Structure to design on (524 residues):
């Protein structure tokens, strides 16, 4: 049992860190089987083999890691990473300092094990902790109903986005959130047909950028942010992977659905580009990459809601970055310039979906040996400068346009409890809180300061903002003040979800449900 104590002590350490939700009963039975005295050597050997077969899957099941089936599915994608990125990931998973700390902890354990009966301590811990939880729950029931905790006062005032957690019943709170989101929908009213009211919509979907990443990269004062007419400061992307992020954005006209529902058909009215097409827009697709990884381009074409759209050719566009899988990533400004030149041949307003993976983890700048983490601030500065320069190109043309800057998810530049830097299996608030900005190009009315939208919002609010502009163009001479377009936008709490993992906001951090259905609370 001496060596097994390390296994159970590790579990207790991870539990108190908020990174593990132990199955107390299963672990207690496991401990009792391990301490059971057995005289015959071959039976002890069989017990050891069976224990090893149980220990690793049990630990994985209790952790915040994605479902094992999902991990196996991702194995094929991981094998496509280039060797330099795999080395970089290995160094993040097992940094030298952590390795030496682990060795030191094991040495200290074996020294103290001579005088301390760790087996007894482990057994007491795995009995007393669940017993304490049970007593605490019974006492809470005796004290009567617990007042609901509202994660956001702004959301509570708005309705349709409040997340009330009664006691610690996060499952019930999630159920109420689902029921609230299910019927929500944005309806586009007829567009103004006058030529002076028409404008393009240029939607720039940016991989790997959150408010937390802007802070870590020291880019909160980048000029691009100050050029937006509208800036969302609590915008939930809901996910932490590119494919689901694209699906949610392209289905922005409807409320937030569970992760599994992303891969099922939805009513046509949920597709924002379909709604724009009905109002006279020509939808188009452009990417600064080939879109083949994880069939990203398939997710886009299947969910844009308009059949037959082909992505723009990248032939001849200069390569600026090598991706994590060694595929080429084109220069953003050059790619957008290519699209803009082709756009001039199209009559009437155009709605573009442009996706860029310039900031993706594992990317390497051409001619540079810097790691992807170290090069991130440089890549970010270049991307934001490119978007700003492209807006200047559009402005110089005189054509009216609404530029929508919306990231997919964060890059997780800093490690969080339960996952290393760059790992995004847990859609934490730091990863899904995105800097979303909207800029009116060639707007001649009174601009005023940037309209900061601080209420908890998501794709539904962005869709409503665009719908307000389409039906009552801000570019026409008699348009209302810009602040009016953002009044009474629908609010959505910051509920994150990946395959098997859900996060809910709490006043001090977030609660997470793992693949086993167990909830843990992480205070920030």
């Amino acid at each position: 049992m001496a060596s097994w104590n390390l296994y159970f002590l590790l579990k207790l350490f991870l539990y108190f860190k908020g990174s593990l939700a132990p199955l107390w009963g299963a672990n207690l039975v496991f401990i009792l089987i391990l301490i059971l005295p057995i005289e015959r050597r071959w039976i002890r050997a069989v017990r050891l083999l069976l224990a090893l077969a149980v220990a690793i899957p049990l630990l994985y099941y209790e952790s915040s890691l994605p479902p094992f089936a999902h991990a196996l599915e991702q194995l094929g994608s991981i094998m496509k990473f280039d060797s330099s990125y795999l080395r970089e990931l290995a160094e993040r998973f097992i940094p030298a300092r952590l390795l030496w700390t682990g060795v030191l902890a094991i040495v200290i354990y074996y020294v103290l094990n001579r005088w301390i009966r760790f087996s007894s301590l482990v057994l007491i811990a795995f009995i007393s902790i669940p017993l304490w939880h049970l007593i605490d729950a019974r006492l809470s029931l005796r004290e009567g109903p617990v007042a609901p905790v509202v994660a956001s006062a702004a959301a509570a005032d708005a309705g349709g986005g409040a997340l009330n957690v009664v006691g610690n019943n996060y499952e019930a709170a999630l159920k109420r959130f689902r029921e609230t989101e299910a019927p929500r929908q944005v309806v586009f009213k007829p567009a103004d047909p006058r030529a002076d009211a028409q404008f393009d919509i240029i939607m720039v979907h940016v991989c790997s950028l959150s408010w937390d990443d802007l802070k870590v990269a020291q880019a909160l004062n980048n000029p691009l942010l100050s050029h937006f007419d509208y800036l969302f400061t609590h915008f939930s992307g809901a996910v932490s992977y590119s494919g689901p992020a694209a699906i949610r954005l392209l289905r922005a006209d409807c409320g937030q659905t569970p992760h599994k529902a992303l891969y099922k058909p939805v009513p046509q009215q949920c597709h924002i580009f379909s709604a724009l097409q009905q109002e006279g827009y020509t939808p188009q697709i452009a990417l600064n990459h080939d879109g083949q990884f994880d069939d990203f381009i398939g997710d886009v074409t299947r969910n844009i809601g308009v059949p037959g759209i082909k992505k723009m050719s990248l032939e001849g566009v200069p390569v600026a970055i090598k991706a994590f899988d060694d595929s080429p990533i084109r220069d953003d400004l050059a790619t957008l310039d290519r699209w803009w030149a082709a756009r001039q041949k199209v009559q009437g307003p155009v709605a573009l979906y442009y996706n860029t993976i310039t900031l993706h983890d594992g990317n390497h700048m051409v001619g540079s040996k810097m790691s992807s983490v170290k090069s991130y601030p440089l890549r970010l500065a270049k991307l934001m400068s490119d978007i700003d320069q492209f807006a200047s190109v559009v402005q110089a043309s005189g054509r009216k346009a609404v530029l929508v800057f919306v990231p997919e998810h964060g890059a997780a530049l800093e490690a969080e409890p339960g996952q290393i830097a760059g790992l995004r299996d847990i859609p934490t608030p730091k990863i899904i809180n995105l800097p979303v900005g909207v800029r009116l190009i060639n707007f001649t009315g009174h601009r005023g300061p940037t309209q900061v939208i601080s209420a908890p919002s998501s794709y539904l609010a962005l869709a409503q903002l665009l719908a307000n502009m389409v039906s009552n163009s801000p570019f026409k001479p008699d348009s209302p003040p810009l602040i009016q377009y953002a009044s009474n936008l629908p609010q959505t709490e910051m509920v994150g979800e990946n395959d098997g993992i859900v996060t809910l906001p709490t006043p001090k951090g977030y609660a997470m449900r793992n693949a086993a259905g167990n909830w843990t609370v992480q205070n920030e």
Remarks:
- DSSP finds 19 helices and 16 strands in the chain.
- The domain at 195-493 is CATH 3.40.720.10 (Alkaline Phosphatase, subunit A).
- The longest strand covers residues 433-441.
